[in-house]
Backbone:
């Protein structure tokens, strides 16, 4: 029996929202009854069910053959209606269809996806971030709890048989509008889908070079270690050392030696320590199209990290790109910043370890975030200049990197973590904290919280059900 027309549920069908068709290709009679009962209990009035059943379909169902094409199941639907394909053992929340229907009625996204929970020995919630096209092509953010507009589904999935769809991760292409609905829509018994796929190859660079800006004040051992690692791992770069009033003879001697290398330039900027101002001065003098701000207490681990990092910066949607940083003992120091943690913003998943895969496997693949640390941050110079660089007035030392990322995002340039670029970070090895610095820090915290108060509990890449009081995934 081929697909037939649907006599959808008529009672109360007065909604101005989309019609939602549920396709259950692997259902037997008991499963079909389960899905029909589930749909009858949903408060959304305009729905229909397509499934494989014996005999003639009821007026709320239609029959399908095992190899029927998905496009055949959508012939009578409008382009803005929704379709979903369900699998064995899956249970939707009592209002899942209504939640998605309302979201679709108010917006024009092509795909809607929600959160899930796995059941077995214990419940395991999968709280997902909002959509990012780079992360979403490597990590199965969408999973099983998805609904798609018919217009998109016809072109992208229509040639596949309905039975194939539940076993395939959706991979929307660029330009497809994807909306995350931050509610648990589906429970299922299976183990998590394959979270990490083959790494995405970065774009090839037309001009594979960058200007690396390194602020310093003495601590020559750290600078020598940092510079040595650049010489070992990078083939095409220039470095601007911004000297904030070094006084030690060995520092001056080493800077003089570096100055004889055409790849290095020295800027003298004495005065009070203002990290933002030092970085801005170095950026102003840069010759390359891409800037990399690098702490002098960092150490590159392997060749290719710079090319991998900066290869993303020319993408029209990408602003700041951050590296994965580890402590000398191998512990994770940075893999992205979450806005709102600790009441302002901080690094996330610090206990994952260097080889940990992270929540949803994110520590292994490039993905979008709200912010990355300025200890190693790459950005296209034209974008950096467009937002006025670092805020040297209000954030001379702390939170200037996060603030930069958020201002870039206001212009449509999202931050990205590139975990395949790995550096060692000897964190805060160059500064000692004084009482004056503690007072200054409190002032910068206050400014940051006031400036970004609308984002402190609304990080789009951090699920609202997760706790902001921990640096690792935990229920809030």
Residues:
């Amino acid at each position: 029996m081929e697909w037939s027309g649907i006599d959808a549920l008529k009672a109360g069908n007065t909604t101005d929202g989309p019609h939602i068709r549920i396709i259950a290709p692997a259902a037997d009679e008991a499963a079909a009854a389960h899905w029909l009962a589930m749909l009858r209990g949903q408060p959304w009035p305009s729905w229909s069910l397509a499934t494989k059943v014996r005999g003639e379909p009821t007026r709320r169902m239609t029959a399908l053959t095992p190899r029927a094409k998905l496009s055949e199941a959508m012939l009578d639907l409008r382009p803005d209606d929704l379709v979903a394909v369900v699998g064995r053992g899956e249970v939707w929340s009592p209002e899942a269809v209504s939640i998605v229907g309302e979201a679709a009625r108010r917006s024009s996204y092509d795909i809607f996806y929600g959160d899930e929970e796995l059941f077995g020995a214990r419940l395991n919630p999968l709280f997902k971030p909002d959509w990012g096209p780079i992360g979403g092509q490597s990590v199965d953010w969408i999973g099983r709890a998805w609904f798609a507009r018919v217009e998109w589904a016809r072109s992208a999935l229509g040639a596949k048989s309905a039975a194939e769809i539940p076993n395939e991760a959706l991979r929307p292409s660029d330009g497809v509008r994807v909306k995350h609905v931050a509610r648990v829509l589906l429970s299922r018994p299976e183990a998590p889908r394959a979270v990490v796929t083959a790494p995405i190859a970065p774009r090839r660079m037309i001009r594979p070079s960058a200007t690396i800006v390194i602020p310093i004040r003495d601590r020559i051992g750290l600078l020598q270690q940092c510079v040595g690692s650049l010489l070992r791992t990078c083939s095409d770069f220039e470095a601007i050392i911004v000297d904030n009033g070094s006084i030690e003879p060995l520092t001056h001697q080493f800077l003089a030696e570096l100055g004889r290398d055409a790849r290095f330039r020295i800027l003298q900027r004495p005065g009070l320590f203002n990290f933002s101002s030092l970085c801005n001065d170095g950026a102003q003098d840069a010759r390359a199209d891409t800037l990399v701000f690098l702490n002098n207490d960092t150490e590159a681990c392997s060749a290719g990290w710079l090319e991998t990092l900066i290869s993303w910066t020319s993408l029209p949607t990408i602003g700041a790109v951050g590296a994965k940083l580890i402590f000398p003992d191998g512990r994770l120091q940075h893999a992205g910043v979450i806005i709102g943690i600790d009441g302002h913003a901080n690094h996330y998943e610090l206990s994952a370890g260097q080889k940990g895969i992270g929540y949803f496997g994110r520590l292994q693949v490039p993905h979008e975030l709200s912010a990355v640390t300025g200890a190693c941050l790459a950005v296209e110079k034209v974008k950096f200049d467009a937002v006025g660089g670092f805020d040297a007035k209000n954030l001379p030392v702390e939170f200037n990197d996060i603030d930069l990322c958020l201002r870039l995002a206001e212009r449509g340039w999202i931050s990205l973590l590139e975990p395949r670029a790995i550096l060692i970070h000897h964190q805060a090895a160059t500064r000692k904290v004084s009482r004056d610095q503690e007072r200054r820090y409190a002032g910068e915290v206050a400014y940051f919280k006031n400036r970004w108060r609308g984002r402190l509990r609304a990080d789009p890449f951090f699920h609202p059900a997760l706790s902001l009081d921990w640096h690792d995934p935990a229920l809030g």
User: Anything to note?
Assistant: The two ends are 50 Å apart (CA to CA). The chain has eleven helices and 21 strands. The longest helix spans residues 435-451. Residues 1-14, 55-61, 204-208 have pLDDT under 50 and may be disordered.
